[in-house]
Amino acid sequence: MIRNIKLYFSFLVASLKRMMEYRVDCLVGMVSQIAFQIIELVFIWIIFQHTDNIAGWNFEQLLLLYGIMMLSISITDLLFDSTYDIGKRLIRKGKFDTILLRPVHPLISVLGESETSTALGYMILSIVLIVSMLIKLHISITVLLIIKILYFGILGGFIIGGIQTIFSIAGFWTYKSNEVVWSVFQLHKLAEYPIEIYNRFIRILITIILPFAFASYYPAVDYLEIEQNYIIYIVPLITIIIWIIAVSVWNWALKKYRSTGN
Amino acid sequence: MAIIEVKNLVKKYKISEKENGILGYIKHLFHPKYKEQIAVNNISFNIEKGELVGYIGENGAGKSTTIKMLTGLLTPTSGQVVVNGIVPNEKRILNNKQIGAVFGQKTQLWWDLPVIESFKLIKKMYEIPDEDYKNNLKKFTKILDLKDLLDKQVKNLSLGQKMRCEIAATFLHNPKVVYLDEPTIGLDILVKENIRKFIKDINKEQHTTVILTTHDLKDIEEVCDRIILIDKGTIIYDGEKEVFKNKYGKHIIAEFIIQNKNSNITVETIEEEFEIIEENETSIKIKFNHERLTIIDIVKSISKYCEILDMHIQEEGLEEILKEIYRGELIND
Q1: Residues B83 and B205 in one domain
Q2: Which of A207, A238, A204 is nearest to A221 (CA)?
Q3: In the A/B pair of chains, how many CB contacts fall below 8 A?
Q4: Would B330 be classed as within a structural domain?
Q5: Considering its fold, how many domains does chain B have in total?
Q6: pLDDT (tens place) for every residue of chain A, 262 residues total
Q7: Are residues B75 and A95, on separate chains, in Cβ contact within 8 Å?
Q8: What's the CA gap between B123 and B130, in Å, rounded?
Q9: What is the ipTM of this complex?
Q10: Which of A241, B6, B249, B268 has a Cα at 20 to 30 A from A71?
């Protein structure tokens, strides 16, 4: 386990080195992501030109929620970005065989190939958003709060990354796995808004089935001290459960893959 | 005890049967029909530590499927593979630590990184002790002439340079067994020779067991002592290379330099015992079965038609023998 984690970081460092080789690509990716996110923020601003709250959340609170989700996404992008297109990138091309021949769990090898320039863009923007909204909302930025934000940001990143990893096994059967993962991933947008606005079905979807809300909504409620919420304490448990599922479905898919060949 | 034990190994693939046209495609979507195809049909062999084995056969004979099962990439349908006491398919990661593999053009190196960075990652992955790593790196750099390549990115290397690095990467952790699937494909003669020499050197030094599949039979001629020949999923020969040549290489090719030809030999009736491969005014090339005819017989019959100035005799190589086997000219007995 520890050996695998160490190797994961060695692979990740290699990926980052590789990314640095393409500085222009890196910069373009970063800038375009920031631009894309700013457009989404403009939409939220437009909505608030017509109303002063959504389910009791004002503009600043909503942007804080948005920033928290973005921080989680940036962690996902940084650490677990590479599983989503394994069908096209590795399996179809037969490159997966060389990964299977390494004395490391294949999931570690694949995850370690994450190289994304978007992570940095997201991270910068989310920190700007979170800090400025906290100031606007007159919430004092204590050391405890900073630790909390980082802690739940990282766990949130692991939750979303875990969900992505679970669905990435589609790549063993279709080379269009990126579209499967992408459509599941897009559901995280639902958790960029307070869950009070949704009906029961969507609430269950983003808290129990695909628990994106734990990467944004529940931490936000805690920071905003809207109500006493104990649910925040189960976030680590949820993270662990998701990753146990992710590793199990991967092992299952690997077994299937090796019995059919390609 | 053998380092590789293969017993009654079978691999069947399910192949989907689709009818033609869009309609057939849709039909398949709802009622998929499968046909079974046997890629490897009940093969068994043992390989001892330190052997250099050439695993040969035509495309689609079952070579790659066997190698994939030996490496644990593929689960056998039935039968057993044991490599150095480990069942590769069950203890994949443990098995990966003791083997090395090169699969044609698929690289195990990191494409965008300098070669040396890949080597360092491999060192970490296989937990190679510092001492071994240093020694091997030094030795491999010398034999494979990698000195100027180590700091270059893999993507900037030529095919031959890449393969030399690839081979070095494969042997870096002192694997007990190495599978080389088409390691010399597309390479020029010098690089090929370099790689063959490397394999032989390491085998002598480390007693590394090597299984080599290749279409360039020169690789086998020069590197391997033993041949396993597979055809349509079954082994049709397993034994020493020299024995193989003696058993199937019944032909000799003789080339005569001639003059004053009085008539065309091809047109004239001649015993079916020998075959004329090439004929012109100054030379003639003849292939004959040396168990039934001697060179003297040939000389006698040709000299009726012309004056012989000189001759060269050549035994049939592995390549010609295999061609005959694939064409079905040599019946396995």
Answers
A1: yes
A2: A207
A3: 66
A4: no
A5: 2
A6: 888 899 999 998 888 888 877 888 888 888 888 888 899 999 999 999 999 889 889 999 999 999 999 999 999 999 998 888 888 888 888 889 899 999 999 999 999 988 777 788 889 999 999 999 999 999 989 999 999 999 999 999 999 999 999 999 999 988 888 889 999 999 999 999 999 999 999 999 999 999 999 999 999 998 888 777 788 889 999 999 999 999 999 999 999 888 776 5
A7: no
A8: 8
A9: 0.84
A10: A241
